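User: Here's a chain of 153 residues. Predict its fold as tokens.
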Amino acid sequence: MFESRVTSIDDMELYFLWANDRVVRSNAFSSGLILWDDHVDWFKMKLLDDSCFMYVIEKDTEAIGQVRFDIENKKVVIGYSLDSRFRGKGYGVGVLQCAIYSVTRAMGRSFILQAQVKESNYPSLRVFQKLGFYDASYVIERDGIITFEKPIG
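Assistant: Prediction complete.
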């Protein structure tokens, strides 16, 4: 149903549009709009970063969202967003399953996935629960944030 492909420089504008979507900004930890020049610098840096894996997720060859994995302190932190046209369709679980499969193959080793989600972001909370992530907030405490973890491999 879903296909992943490695993000390329050609996706820079698409990521910019997704990142500045109203709902995406409201669910981000930093909710201000992102400036183009800042985005260009960040995007190019992430593409060159060996500890970052970025995927565009497609359905029927149409880009519907993105998933990013950042290796931090022996854990792999996951972040994702869906194009506004594809939200509310139940795609979150499948999108993340597709990307997790891709990053697992790319890394070739076991790891712990970690996601941090605002308590008010009910759709993402449900997605991570459905995927079998457990609540690790008792270990990492941040007001208004739920930390989920799941061992992979």
